[in-house]
Every structure is written in structure tokens, then in C-alpha cells.
Description:
Blueprint: E1 8-14, H1 18-31, E2 37-43, H2 50-58, E3 64-68, H3 75-83, E4 90-93, H4 105-114, E5 120-124, H5 137-150, E6 166-169, H6 170-176, H7 187-194, E7 201-205, H8 220-235, H9 241-267, H10 272-295, H11 303-335, H12 340-362
Parallel strand pairs: 1-2, 1-4, 2-3, 5-7
Antiparallel strand pairs: 4-6, 5-6
Helix pairs in contact: 1-2, 9-10, 10-11, 11-12
Amino acid sequence: MSKLPLDLAVIVPTFNERRNVAVMIAALDSALAGIGWEAIFVDDNSPDGTAELARELARTDHRVRVIQRIGRRGLSSATIEGMCATAAPFVAVIDGDMQHDETLLPAMLAALRGDDGLDIAIGSRFVDGGGTGEWDRDRVAKSAMATRLSRWVLKADLSDPMSGFFMARARVVREIVPQLSAIGFKILLDILTASPRPLRFVELPYVFRTRQAGESKLDHVVAMEYLIALYDRMFGRIVPVRFAMFSLIGALGAGVHFAALWAVFGLGGASFLAGTIVATGVAMTFNFLLNNALTYRDRRLRGLRQLVDGWIGFCAVCSVGAVANIGVAAFLHDVQDQQWAPAALAGIAVAAVWNFALSSRFVWGRY
């Protein structure tokens, strides 16, 4: 391995990709011959030992670096950390599952080097010469829908705004980092929408590969995170996305509360007090689990001990919030002579802010 000047950092966000680490390094070694490069594996503390294996390779290959994140999750935020941790003038982002075509990287680098005004080179599955490989019709349709939705916030006419495979000038990305939301899996969309000026880009075709090792990270929550990211770009400055999610789940929890109360009190014949106690416990548990899966997905609690501790903390916080709700509403209605509806809404608002602030700090902020 010759000591070439460092030109390119390849950022590889990983979670449970141990079987692909050595394969990735070998593929980059072949594709980037004659280019000074480094690979930065940003690992979300994978239980399969991804970070440990990458460190073993780094002992004999100076081009391999590892950032192991503890208590932090998410592809976008991992990518941002990797891009800020290199001295290379160009940064590329590639998935750790070998589904992106690393042989396109030299062409991306040549495009950026050849045009001083170009900011990003994007690997596209939807321009001439590109393809989605073995995707089924349903996944193609979902991708097309996501692309249409992105037009609401995007400042550029891209064929593949959902691409997770691109290269950019490091300077340009670092200037934008303070404005990035770091939500979800679509960091390219985040970069393009956060930039104060339209970024100049080129799309280069590649064919999406089929995963050969490991398990896919795609699930319904990933799709939800994409919608959350769109919301954040459209309305996040007015109502922060985390608070909006927390409040929406709280509203759903109210429906769960009434359903449980009806089942225990209306159908089961229990006393109203007993039904209310059961309904409150069910609603709090529902809210806790859904917030853990969605609102705080990047910090979600895992394992029985964390979940039980978190649930107890959440119930304690919400119990105090309920008292605050009642106190504010009663004060406005009885002392300030407000109408019952505004008084009730004020109480709900105070409780929502209380529950959100303390849950963020003492439930999902402890680990």
C-alpha cells in the first residue's frame, strides 16, 4: 500500500454488517487503485462485533478507521459524524451491505475534480444505464411514491433523490452540517434541502445489487422516518418534529385509554375507578412503547432492564404531567373564570410540554 495523498474518505455507516466489512475493504481496494482513500466505518455499537472486526483490519491497513457510537443510532447522524471526521477534500457515502456499486466511485471523483462548480455526484438507479436489480414491483412503486413526495421539499430535479450512494465536496457538506436534521435514512435529501443555495449535482447510473450477507434494515419504521424527515423540512421550524410525534402519539394514547376503559368498565362490569386505573396503565404503556419505537428511535431503550426502568420513569413523568394538567385547567376555569374548553386545552398543552421535556431528559436521555 503506497502512501498516496488523501483525496477521498468513504463513509460506511454500519449496524450488524460484520460479514461485509472485509468484503467492502477488498472491493474498495480494487475500485480505488491509484487514489488516496480511507474508509471510515461508523458503527452504531453493533452486537455482532462489526466495530471489533473493522479495528482488527485497521491494525494492518492504515486506510481503515472506526467510529463506534455508544447510545446513538441512525444512518443519517452516523454519516454526518463520519463526514466531519476526515481531512479528505471529498467524501463518499456508501451502504455497508455491498448493494451499491463501488466501481462507480472513481467516476464520481473524476466528475467532481473536473468541474469546480459541481458539489455532488449521485449514484442513480433511475437514469439511463441504471437499474433497481431484483426489486419487485411493489418496492419500485413505493420508491416512485417517495420520489414524488420529495418534490415538496427538494430544491432540485433529481431522478433518484432517495439514493444513499453519493460523493460530495467535504467543504460543502461541513458548511451545511449545522442545518441538517439527521433524521432517518435519507441523508442526501437532508443535505439538498438544508443547503441555503441550490447545490450543483450530476447523476451517474448504477445497478442496485442484491444483498449477499446480513439482514436488510428496511422496515415500516424506516418508511415512517422518511415521512418524519419530510415533515421536519416543511414544518419543523414551527413545531419541532420530536414534539409533534410525541403529541400525536399522546392523542392516539387517549383513544387507547377510552377503548380500554370501555372494555373494562362498559363490557367487563368493573367499577369506573378500576376501569380508569387499568385504562391509564394501558395508555401509558402504549405511549411509552410507541415513543420508544418512533419518537426516540435513535435513542430507543433495549433489553428488559432498560425497558422496565424507562416505563417506570415515563409513568412517573406522565403522572406529574396529569397533575399539572388538572391544576392549570382548574386554575384557569375556577379562578380566572375562563371557559371550560380553553382552560382544558391549556392544561393539556402544559402537560404535553412537561411530559415531552422530562421524558426527553430523564427517560430517553439517561442511556
